[in-house]
Amino acid sequence: MSSDAVPGAADELPDDVSFDIPDDLSGLSIFGETTTKPTVALVLTQVAGADPLAAVCTVAKLEVDVFFAQGVGAVAVCRDLDGDGPAQVAAGISQLISGVPAILVERRENQITATRWLDGERGDDIPAGLLLDGAPDDLEGLLLGTHTLADIKGVLPAGQYSRLKAARLLASLARKARKKS
Question: What is the pTM of this model?
């Protein structure tokens, strides 16, 4: 639209008005968040122990460390924070524990975001404040940067099992679950 379209529009701006338009918008994404690398990325699950989640992640070849957070469930801490690494972990976990949502929580530049994942697909965003309300100290500390993984007891690396041993553990847990039902 030219200034001729609105009579007098160009005449109404003072001569001393200046503004800059940045020529690099690469820090923005189509989802509204910045594209900076997360400081921490966690996948919260309803899995009732660290061992089963570590086995699931081993079978899926996901690079994570796992711990159990009382009142939440097993938590996977993503090792690969580059690019879509955390999203791949959330997709992989939610696909293997199908029908049960997983929550990807990331901290970027002092902002926490949370996204629901189900059956390998990204779902809706969740207000991060809801997740922190009543969260165990270890989980909250990791997200806020006051704790490190070394401060948490019972952390299991996903690679602690061979893929065969992980598959056997999962088969054993599935048999036990079927016997109970």
Answer: 0.77
